[in-house]
Amino acid sequence: LPGQILDQWFESEPLKATLATDAVIGAMASPHTPGSGYVLLHHVMGELEGQRGAWGYVAGGMGALSQAIACAAAAQGAHIFAEKAVGHVLLGRDGRAQGVVLQDGTEVRSKLVLSNASPQITFLELTPQEQLPKDFVQRIRQVDTRSPVTKINVAVDQLPSFLAAPNTRDGRPLPHHQCSIHLNCEGTHLLHQAFTEATHGHPSSRPMIELCIPSVLDPGLAPQGCHVVSLFTQYTPSVLAGGRPWDEQARNAYADTVFDCIEAYAPGFKASVIGRDILTPPDLERIFGLPGGNIFHGGMSLDQLYFARPAPSYSGYRSPIPSLYLCGSGAHPGGGVMGAAGRNAAQVALEDFRRL
Fold first, then answer.
1. What confidence score (pLDDT) does residue 73 get?
2. Both 350 and 328 in a single domain?
3. Which residues form a coiled coil (predicted)?
4. If we measure between CA atoms, which residue out of 179, 124, 113 comes closest to residue 326?
């Protein structure tokens, strides 16, 4: 339990709760849920430019990371087709993957196919079911993809000024504006309460909020004097109590709750908002292909990690279809911006390619 681990090392309840957020990021779990300690480990095990457990902002926004990978691939001779949806994986008579068929009917033939779509999309939508073992299909259907995350992107016309550390008169960014700001994290009991509400189908009345202002470090993201604020919030259930839909009313009601919370810490925040984009779990699934809205393509619980990710006997990136590989967050070692699944899958695919 992360609570027990943090109790051994720290005394301050706000510090413990703030660190405990890394144990529940993207997980429908509370700091009191057994196994959530692994999620905490997963988020601090890496390093950035020699700093262990550090995170960073990508200059130009997260899309710039995809662009950098794309440029590196193109420099090696890769051809990239954007906005070309895949209809299904093309199989030969021998059952091997031979390429993909795009939704417009175009066939793209290849000796190997790597998919960084989720296991659910890869095997339940893009692959003929009769070609897959029944127990494998059942396992993929049973993967826990519950997600508590609603992401809210906000445009503001002035920098938030927090009661705990008010802005200077010239309005220049202060050190705390340059890092993650955790709100509603005065104690781990608050995180647990927020989680409990969501398990009953209700968006948290006092949600856990991780607030970042990337434009402070990367001014090109917003016009002068304005900023973009990224809100990573929990907990919101994928399905609301009574089967109610996440319609415009429900979306805005939850966003208003989040903004009311921020206003209590930073008076004037609501008046500074000039635009907002609310992405609930169903939105994240529809727009980005994330099953259940889960940012990791499936929960990071101990029964869905290591040799069991995405399914027992298939954690080595190879799938039941020869020449079809899984290289996204649904494969070992799971989610996070680290590229480990892709790198490992590429090495396995290259090994097989040399044999071909």
1. 95
2. yes
3. none
4. 113
Identity of the residue numbered 167: N
Tell me, yes or no, whether 37 lies in a domain. no
Instruction: State yes or no: pLDDT of 273 exceeds 90.
Output: yes
Assess whether 200 and 247 both reside in one domain. yes
Full-model pTM: 0.92
29-47, pLDDT tens digit by residue? 998 888 888 888 888 877 8
Nearest to 229 by CA among 161, 300, 139, 166: 161
Tell me, yes or no, whether 176 lies in a domain.
Answer: yes
Domain count, the chain: 2
By DSSP bridging, strand 324-326 and strand 113-115 are parallel
Closest by Cα among 164, 211, 206 to 187: 206
What is the C-alpha separation between 110 and 108, in angstroms, rounded?
7
Based on the fold, state whether residues 326 and 274 are members of the same structural domain: no
Rounded distance between C-alpha atoms, residue 199 and residue 124, angstroms? 27
Tens digits of per-residue pLDDT, 190-230? 999 999 999 999 999 999 999 999 999 999 999 999 999 99
Burial class of residue 15, CB neighbours in 10 A (0-12, 13-18, 19+): middle
CB of 152 closer than 8 Å to CB of 259: no
From CA 283, how far away is CA 29, in angstroms rounded?
A: 21
> Helices marked H in the chain — which ranges?
2-9, 13-24, 36-44, 63-75, 119-120, 134-142, 188-199, 248-265, 269-272, 281-288, 340-355
Let me know whether 185 and 284 are in one domain. Answer: yes
Same domain assignment for residues 229 and 207: yes
> Does position 3 have pLDDT exceeding 80, yes or no?
no
The helix or strand, by DSSP H or E, that contains position 326, with its residue range, turns out to be strand 324-326
Tell me, yes or no, whether 278 and 157 share the same domain.
yes
Residues 182 and 284 in one domain: yes
Residue 226 and residue 123 in one domain: no
pLDDT, position 4: 83
222 C-beta neighbours (distance < 10 Å), count: 18
Owning domain of residue 136: 87-144+295-354
Residue at a domain's end among 240, 266, 288: 288
Domain edge (last residue) among 288, 319, 334: 288
